[in-house]
Amino acid sequence: MPLPAQLPKPQWPEHARLLRFGRFCLDRDHRRLLRDGEPIELPARAFEVLQLLVASPHQLLTREAIFDAVWKDTIVEDANLTQVVWVLRRAFGDDAKSYIRTVARRGYVFEPPDPVVAETAAPSLRLASDAAPNEPPVVPVRAANARRYLLGAALLASALVLAAAVWYRLASPATSSSVVIVETRDADDDEGAQNASALLHDWLRWKLGVLHQIDVADGGTAPAAGERTQRVILLSTSRTATGSEWQLDARVFGAGDTRHYTLVGADLRKIDALDAFSRRVAAVVAPEAEDDLALGLTAEAAEHYAAANRAWMRGDRATQIAQLRLAQQKAPSAGWLRVQTADVLAELGQIRAANVEVERNADWTAALPPTARALLDARRLAFAQRSREAAAAYVDLARRYPHMAGLRLDQAEALVLDQRLSESAEALDTIDVGALSVDQRIRWLKLRTTYLYYQESPRAAQAAYRKIAELAGDSPRLALPRAVAEGNALAIEIEEQGAAAGADRVAALEAAADRVAAAGDPIEAAKLRVRAALATSDAGSERVAQRVGILLALTRANGDVARELWALWVDAIAQGRSGRIAEQRATLLQAEAVAKANDNLAGTRDAAKFLGQEALRAGRYDEAERRFVSVRGVLLAPQIGLGLAALYTAQGRYEEAERATEDANRVSRQAQAQSAQSAAGKVGIDCWLGTVRLARAQIDQAQALFANCATQSSPAIALQGRLGLAQVAAISGSREQAREQARALVADIAALTDTLQRMDLYARAAQVLVDANDMAAADKALDGVVAFANRNGLAPLEARARSAAMQIALARGNDEDALADYAAADAVLPASDWRTRSRLDTLRAIAYRNAGEAAEANRLLDSIVDGARSRGDVVAELSALSIDDRDEAYARRTAQTGARGTSLRDLLRTGGKPR
């Protein structure tokens, strides 16, 4: 049996009766707190906890030590202590944050701004009643019945009642614009009483928020302590005085008034009685609630609803949906159930199914009051992914009801879905974050994080996740978002560090996944485990495949389309990195089919992005452009602009490539203020822009852009930057420098685990080595590239590799081999690929010259020069001119541009003279 946790020794003498700190005085005799001389009575448990904290300022009191001292021999939930601390912070008011600091998952530290002063004199002010508040005795219960997900316990109810009553007696008058609902249940409560309390909580929350436009927060997550305009509705279950029946109590505090309502015995299972009870409770906050529409459930439907809640608590979303649908069958006229079902389906990414529920609910929605109908209509537009209209609807509602911060969050979310990221950020900036409840602040940060991910700003996203974990604190109700945020922050850190990430950090991520699973979300835990595997294994490893398989099985079993798509994207990326290109395409097409089958527009857009990249690599340029253009300006991810830039560069459409690169740059620039790292360099934008500038022989600009890429933390992007610098050296005529840089580059490319990136960089490095006249090193770099590209249908990569091989063959006098490489490349390369084809044709012209076929060579060279000039491709023009007889033109252009390393004349053999 574990020993009781030890408390620090009190820092004041036992005979001290008053303990003063700042504006406050703790009166030990009368068990009360004074603020500026005004009494604040505290419940017994709250007073005992505060006394422990004041006894040991600036020292950590663990949760275990507090439980042993205050709830000795009693089995209670963590939520009991959390709720007591919430009561104390309310009592401290505006100064709460500076007095009680939470140490996540460990305990609390009392940090008064001034030293605690002990006195023996009695206080000058005495209350009318000095007796300690009555608190019913707590009967110890068996630990086997404790369930950690329950919020609080019945033994805490009287404490919260007294604290809330005192708080509102001291606070400024409450308005009817906001409500905090606190629900407490004991682990041994009757299941029927628990179900009634949960149903009442959900029904009150929905109808106060939707029917009466009141901002509703749950207890323990209410706005900062200084915000005292909320009313409090306290729901608790307990046995009656005789112990023969169970009762549900609802107490409403605020505006100088307290109301108490009780539902007893068999009425707990009567839906009509519970509905009437909800009207009386809601009418205290919103008098017109007496005329609210009926709940409309049957007893059987209520049982299924309770089963759905239990399934949700254990992370079983498939059962949750099934139980909600069974509840609908038992109560077909209960439109509220369809609203709940649609919300769950939309959250899971089953957009088509969510819209079906909305359409079936049209008649019920039409009968609602106009404002409630407007709220649901805005949600309907969001479900239908008419995001622009939804955002406008939420803007209008937010103007009409400025106190409902949730509407601004809904507006920001709709704007994110519509890819209007700057407007979304502006909407978030208009929200007074300090006035939000904790769960609303977490949602605010999640939207910020989504924005940052779109902007490719991982460090800022990591900071946002850490802030979410900090906000969640040690609240049991927020254990899941805290665990998920901690896991995501760790995953980003490890992904940023790459191979440098230590085993301890990966172990910490695995532990975070375990906490997420324990908090009730096995799917999110499986996601984190996939990310841990990717950080420590080759993308094609069995461990990664196994974990992705587990994740896919979980998502499909739960009908979680949104996270199924995430798993498919990760699977496809892993397949590409390991060189399984055919499998990758099949997975991407499968993901597209899943997204379309569920009318999931976000998934369909992501599919267009990924399939566009796949088509580009395969040389299906028309398909690639169609897919990219379909989401250009809609899906604001830098990869869209980069994909188009790569396509247009390959086709020699350099002006369009620059515009596409600027599109990507514009998206990323929005995040640079959020990240210590250059967003443009991070996603390789400067590398592509440098490639365009180099083709146009704008050498100084290209060099600066490549230098920026070369300093990035991403190994692949840094290698691309170094490759660009080697190309600059080669084209500038510094062959020795280019050779040294390219050789070092080839050695480092081998460390890349992404097979696609590795093969692409090998082919590009080989071309630099060829231009630097290092044929042996180039030959070695090309080893396996042609076979890999051919096997996987990567036509542009195969053609680039064969172009380098063709130049090697010409340098060695093997013209037949060179022409064979040309024929193989020509057979697979798209006709519109100007960049590679112009190089191949220039080399073919050399072979023709060497064979004495001057006329055919001249025809090719004239065509290349004309095409290069029309496109502004100076390098292609100079390469063609270097083997023609236009020496003056070549010399003039070389002098203008400084591109002295573009000549291919040394590939001409004796007899193969220029015309």
UniProtKB/TrEMBL annotation:
<feature type="transmembrane region" description="Helical">
    <location>
        <begin position="149"/>
        <end position="168"/>
    </location>
</feature>
<keyword id="KW-0812">Transmembrane</keyword>
<keyword id="KW-0238">DNA-binding</keyword>
<dbReference type="InterPro" id="IPR011990">
    <property type="entry name" value="TPR-like_helical_dom_sf"/>
</dbReference>
<dbReference type="InterPro" id="IPR036388">
    <property type="entry name" value="WH-like_DNA-bd_sf"/>
</dbReference>
<dbReference type="Pfam" id="PF00486">
    <property type="entry name" value="Trans_reg_C"/>
</dbReference>
<keyword id="KW-1133">Transmembrane helix</keyword>
<dbReference type="GO" id="GO:0006355">
    <property type="term" value="P:regulation of DNA-templated transcription"/>
</dbReference>
<keyword id="KW-0472">Membrane</keyword>
<dbReference type="GO" id="GO:0003677">
    <property type="term" value="F:DNA binding"/>
</dbReference>
<dbReference type="GO" id="GO:0000160">
    <property type="term" value="P:phosphorelay signal transduction system"/>
</dbReference>
<dbReference type="InterPro" id="IPR016032">
    <property type="entry name" value="Sig_transdc_resp-reg_C-effctor"/>
</dbReference>
<dbReference type="InterPro" id="IPR001867">
    <property type="entry name" value="OmpR/PhoB-type_DNA-bd"/>
</dbReference>
<feature type="DNA-binding region" description="OmpR/PhoB-type">
    <location>
        <begin position="16"/>
        <end position="112"/>
    </location>
</feature>
<protein>
    <submittedName>
        <fullName>Winged helix-turn-helix domain-containing protein</fullName>
    </submittedName>
</protein>
<feature type="domain" description="OmpR/PhoB-type">
    <location>
        <begin position="16"/>
        <end position="112"/>
    </location>
</feature>
